[in-house]
Every structure is written in C-alpha cells, then in structure tokens.
Amino acid sequence: MSEPSDDSRDERPRLSRERVLRGAVAVADAGGLESLTIRSLAQSLGVKPMSVYYYVSNKEEILDCIIDLVFSEIELPAAGGDWRTEIRRRAHSARRVLRAHPWAIGLMESRTSPGPATLRHHDAVIATLRAAGFSRELTAHAYALLDSYTYGFALQEVGLPFNGSDTVADVAEPIMERFSTGEYPHLVEMATDYYLQPGYDFGDEFEWGLNLILDALTASATSGTRHRSDPDRESSAGRGQ
Amino acid sequence: MSEPSDDSRDERPRLSRERVLRGAVAVADAGGLESLTIRSLAQSLGVKPMSVYYYVSNKEEILDCIIDLVFSEIELPAAGGDWRTEIRRRAHSARRVLRAHPWAIGLMESRTSPGPATLRHHDAVIATLRAAGFSRELTAHAYALLDSYTYGFALQEVGLPFNGSDTVADVAEPIMERFSTGEYPHLVEMATDYYLQPGYDFGDEFEWGLNLILDALTASATSGTRHRSDPDRESSAGRGQ
DNA sequence: GGACGGTACAGTACAAAGTACGAATACACT
DNA sequence: AGTGTATTCGTACTTTGTACTGTACCGTCC
Fold it and tell me: Is residue A70 over pLDDT 60?
C-alpha cells in the first residue's frame, strides 16, 4: 500500500484540521463510535497515526469537535418566519441529522462544553420563540420541551434493534415469538397487531408528537402559561427585567 | 444480607453475578462510564480482574445487564389506577433514576437488545394506556411521545455542564461573560435574565412539559387522534421564505 | 550557497485496557 | 487419599491513546 508509483500524481490532498474532523465523522458514520480510533482515522486519511496529532491535541478534542460539527448540520430556524414553520423545520432537520450520525447522541451525554454551532443553534431557536411573542418563561418551557422531545425521539430511534435496511418485522418477530404466549401480553399484542403491521414506521410518530406539542404550545401562548392538571406544583419565576 | 462474619479478617463475601453487576453500577455511578474497567471493577470487588469473567463473558455483557438493571429501578405504572397519575409517576421515576445513573443514557444508544426489565416496563406502560381506553394507534403515539420526552429531558439534564452540587450560575456565568457583548444575544439575554436568576432550576421544566403533554393527550383521547396544524404532511417542505 | 528554523509528517515505544489460556485453590463426595 | 467441580488468579497477548524524537521539505537571512 505504500505507493511505489510515480511521484507527481496521486499525492494526497494534504492534511488539515478540517480534513481530520470530517474524516472522523466519516469513520464514525461508517462503523460507529467504537470504530473511531486514532489509527483507523489515520488510515482513512492515508497518513500514519501520529500525524493527526499535529492538528488536534487528543482524541477528546476530536470528539468535542465532531459533536459540534454535527450540530452545525442542523438547519437553523429563520428569524423572520412563522414560528411554527421554523420550529418544525428545525425539529425535522435535527432528527434527520441525528439519524444520519447516530453516534452523536451518545456523545452529547459526555461532552459538557457546548461548541459554537451548538450555541448559535440555541440562540436562533430562542430568537424565533421570543420573536413569536413568547415570554421568557414560556420560551424556557417551550425550548426544554421541544429539545427533549426531539433528542429523545432520536435516541429511541437509534436504540431500535434494526438499523438501516432491516424492517421492524425482521428483527422483532423472532424476539416476539419467544414471548408470544405469556410474559408480556400487552407488548406482544401491540407489536403483532400494530407495530409489525405492513405500513408501520416508527419514524412517522415524530410528526404526530411534534404536532401535538406545537398545538399545545400555541394554546399556551395565547392563553397564559399556566397549565391545569398538576395539583401541587408551583413554578416560581417572577416577572424578570 | 451480609455474611455473618466470624473472626476471619479476609472474609470476602464471595463473588456472584449479582455482586459483579451491582458493583459495576456502583463504579459507574461513582466515576462515570469511562471509569468502569474490568480492573477497576475487580478492585472495587476485592478480587483480581480475571475473576469477574467467571460470571460474565465479557464487558459488553456487563453493559447490557447494567442498563437493564437501571431500568428495573424505574417504578412501573400500576395497572388499576388513574392513567394520568400512573404515567406521571412513572415519568418522574424514570427521570429520577436516569439522573442517579447519568451514564445509562449514553448506553441506551449502543445497547440494542432490550433486557427483561425493559420489556416488562414497556408492557406495563402499554397496559396502562390501553386500560385507559386508548386505541392501539393512540397508545403508540402517546408512548413514543412520553418516552421521547422523558429520555430527552434526562439527556439534556446530564448534558448540562454542571453536575451535582454546582448551580447553573457557577458554571454558566464565566461562559456567558465571554459572549456578553455580541455573539449570541438572545441566548445571553435568556441566560442572564432568566436561567441565571436565583430560583431557577432546569429540572422544574420537566413538570411543565409533562403536564402539557398529558393535557394534550387527554384531549386527543376524548376527541379523535387527528391533529391539525400540519399543512403539508411530509418533511420535504420545499417551502421556505 | 550554507546555516537556520518552522511546518508537516513518521517511527518508536510505553502504559492502560480487554481478555484467552490455563494453573492454582477450595471444597465436596466418594 | 483420590477424584471432580466450582471458583479465583497469574501470565501474556492485543489494541488503544499518545509522549518523545526524528526527518523531509520548505523559505529566509547573511
């Protein structure tokens, strides 16, 4: 594999921090986070392991950076548009991106310091909600709710036993058979009569929940922030400013 | 549960699969997932590294098992009770458990085959919703929504830069100062005027969103499953502005 | 032109982690 | 005592991250 050929052609495009990080994303996309090692990364870049250390100080830094790189792929909500349209677009984009880079969700948990793309992101979403007339309090509520839902949905999606080409049925059926007569009756019933039916796609659930949340937020925004249903809590938080 | 010790100083309580797995949880709780190595686990159990392999076949199996162990800590909804009460209780319990074992969320992503506690869990939640009169379709919608929210919220909570004793202000303030004059104006405004105010606790947001979801689900259950709000049904949405 | 220094890579080597393999120990029951 | 099974440990190999050092290729200054 050492190139015995001519000297002029085929030279590799020269390393760079950019190429190192994008290479890391590519390796993780292809084989999962556990396949991303300094050696595998170096190999995919066509260099020797220690060469990547010229551009990053250690693997931790690579992980911090590629998480932010993933975030930078998510579409920002536009400042001027209808908030529902923009928030919906951003939610779908986030889900799509996290599905394209499933390893990113696991990383979010361990990387504690947000990168610039992450911060820019938060800023844009807050701006959209505030521009729509949400109070600070309602903005905080809405943002926590929307992000929780989006990330949580993505988390569930990547946690499903099948990835890519397999359909639910292929993988779930053998599992289900083992319990078919007794242990988890309701789960099995739902699985056989609903989840495993031909047209079902878990991903479609995203839209339903998102609509429910957006509708409920609209109602909250036009009435007050108060919600019924909770017998004993108070949220404190005065009128700031 | 402890051995009646006798006068022997050594007196190791004898290893067991149970002790290995509980020890693994304890090590991860204390120092995070990356501190859980076969060697550290063995040390905490008072044995040599290779001894744990008598009870588990490899580290992967340990990870699979402790994730299910964590799930087993979450309270199951009771079959007979009011569904809102039961679902709320289970949601709070889940959040509490995941906060007690923050490393578990990251694991959920990589472990694809659910353990018995996880399955029992799903079964109980489905049973509760079905018993409340939810159709299969609405049950699927509701479950995806509730779980996404719960896990997503927990994911955000553990991703916050401060863990345990630190308050938001302690950690966010220095970060915020670096941007105080321009880069992320809306984020900074929200941070200084809301998030960093004395009484604020991100964890309180959980209750608000949960109430919103439960209210909206109640409405969906009594009317129909159809939701308005989505103009174009598909995410392709060539519209923009 | 030759010394010099900075840039971009590579080679060597070591520590920490998972774990295969088999030996050592303990205890039971002939 | 002898044989067998259950449990634990010692040794060693492999993969990983990375510290330290070396080297090839530039351009600059005298």
Answer: yes
Distance of alpha carbon B232 from the chain centroid: 33
Every domain of chain B with CATH number 1.10.357.10 lies at 74-162+208-225
Q: CB–CB of B105/B33 below 8 Å? A: no
Helices A103-110 and B136-159 cross at an angle (nearest 10°) of 40
User: Which of A98, A111, A145 to substitute to test the interface with B, most B CBs within 10 Å?
Assistant: A145
Could you please state the CATH topology (level 3) that the domain comprising B12-56 is classified under.
Answer: Arc Repressor Mutant, subunit A (1.10.10)
pLDDT band at B171 (very low <50, low <70, confident <90, very high): low
Which amino acid belongs to residue B155?
A: L
- Give CATH 1.10.10.60 domain extents, chain A: 12-56
With CA atoms as reference, the chain B residue closest to A142 would be B209
- Is A190 in Cβ contact with B139 (below 8 Å)? yes
Residue of A6 and B99 predicted with greater confidence: B99
Specify the DSSP class assigned to residue A77: P
The three-class DSSP label of residue A167 is coil
Closest CA–CA distance from residue A230 to any residue of chain B (Å): 7
Mean confidence (pLDDT) of chain A: 85
User: Which residue type is seen at A17?
Assistant: R
pLDDT at B111: 83
Residues of B in contact with A76 (CB under 8 A): none
A48 beta carbon to strand C: under 7 Å: yes
- For the domain covering A74-162+208-225, report its CATH number: 1.10.357.10
CB atoms within 10 A of CB B81: 14
